[in-house]
Design goal:
single chain; about 375 residues; mainly alpha; two-stranded parallel sheet; 19 helices; globular; membrane; transferase
Length: about 375
């Protein structure tokens, strides 16, 4: 879900002093693949269940850590590369921003066009639709997942400032995290329990800004600056991480069920901005990194597929909602006959397979970079 290149160190070995050119952290490959697999699953789950389904929303709630994990990953990867070398802001922006901005604009137009073609209602004058498109581009709302790219662009814009704070992060990591966490709790509380005078339209505008995700980015920044310490601690304290997962999940589900018990709609009680998600999210991100580290230190099962999937992860993120939309007749067919959870069980692998098929086509096109952020894949030469 991000085009950021990944630095390279062997997973379970102590990381040495950073070289002039950052190395590849193999553990982040599995981290990335698991995360975008969960993002697809959340979207399938929401599309194949009703918003008042208490059980499906209870499953959905903890899986929201996936979006936080990607914001942490994006900042982690960037800052790991620049934690010990200077950054020239304009050069950085020229290189990074087009890799996300161009696909963002292209897919905003594509989804806008798809929405008009499939709308059951009259679409109105073209001038009105073009104005709608401009608003959607400005707000990340051309489709339900595109806000992520808009927030990623904001991360890129503020990243040079974050590099200037590396020494502060190095000397006072816990202070930095504590301040960021306080801001995060305040923002999440506002988004989840807004004052009566603030309508939902105003609240929803914050979803496409960096503000609700800044703590996750800062978490990635601190982890990048203190990678060696963080990596070693997680390796030595796996039991604490597992205990934290259980405790965090229990707190999350308790908060969710209490909210539902007080009359909150299950879909709202399970959204990603509820403060009771925060402890779980932090521990889940740590556990995901730890899982990737153990995998990278071992036999790296399915390693070739993981590498292949990582190279296409940004494209998968961009087009999987299109695949899911195209599977609407399958959702209706299975749902009407078998209901939940069979609809989710059938539609999830179908969505993954169709997404990969679309990505394979897109990566072969001459304009692949505009569609996927990656250069076209060359077809293998025929064997003579």
């Amino acid at each position: 879900m991000t085009t950021t290149e990944t630095p390279h160190v062997h997973a379970e070995e102590p990381a040495s002093a950073p070289a002039a050119k950052a190395r590849h952290l193999r553990q982040l490959d599995l981290y990335r693949v698991i995360t975008f697999a969960l993002v697809i699953f959340i979207h399938v789950l929401v599309s194949t269940t009703y918003p008042d389904n208490v059980l499906s929303a209870a499953i959905e709630a903890p899986l929201h850590f996936a979006r936080a994990a990607f914001f942490a990953l994006t900042t982690f990867v960037l800052l790991f590369q620049y934690r010990s070398r200077p950054l020239e802001a304009r050069r950085f922006w020229r290189h990074r921003i087009p890799l996300v901005a161009v696909p963002y604009l292209v897919w905003s137009v594509l989804y806008w066009g798809y929405g008009m073609l499939t709308s059951p209602d009259p679409v109105g004058p073209l001038s009105d639709q073009l104005w709608t498109l401009l608003i959607q581009i400005a707000t990340g709302s051309a489709w339900y997942h595109l806000y992520f790219l808009l927030v990623t662009l904001q991360v890129y814009l503020v990243f040079p400032l974050l590099v200037k704070l590396v020494e502060v992060i190095r000397r006072r990591p816990w202070t930095v995290l504590a301040v960021s966490a306080l801001v995060q709790v305040a923002v999440m509380s506002f988004l989840s329990y807004p004052p009566g005078s603030v309508d939902y339209t105003t609240v929803s505008r914050f979803f496409a800004t960096l503000l609700p995700y800044q703590f996750y980015s800062m978490l990635g920044a601190v982890a990048a600056v203190h990678l060696e310490t963080m990596h070693g601690w997680l390796r030595e304290h796996r039991g604490w991480v597992l205990a934290g997962l259980v405790a965090g999940l229990a707190a999350l589900e308790t908060g969710y069920l209490m909210s539902v018990g007080h009359g909150v709609w299950p879909e709202m009680a399970a959204d990603a901005y509820r403060p009771y998600l925060l402890p779980w999210v932090v521990v889940a991100i740590a556990a995901l990194y730890m899982t990737g580290s153990r995998w990278a230190a071992g036999r790296q099962r399915a390693g070739r597929f993981i590498s292949w999937a990582v190279d296409r992860s940004f494209a998968v993120f961009l087009c999987h909602p299109l695949a899911l939309a195209l599977l609407g007749p399958l959702i209706e067919f299975v749902g009407n006959r078998y209901g939940s959870p069979w609809t989710t069980i059938v539609v999830y692998p179908a969505t993954v397979l169709l997404t990969f098929a679309i990505v394979l086509v897109l990566r072969r096109l001459p304009w692949s970079k505009a569609l996927t952020g990656r250069a076209p894949v060359r077809a293998p030469a025929p064997v003579p």
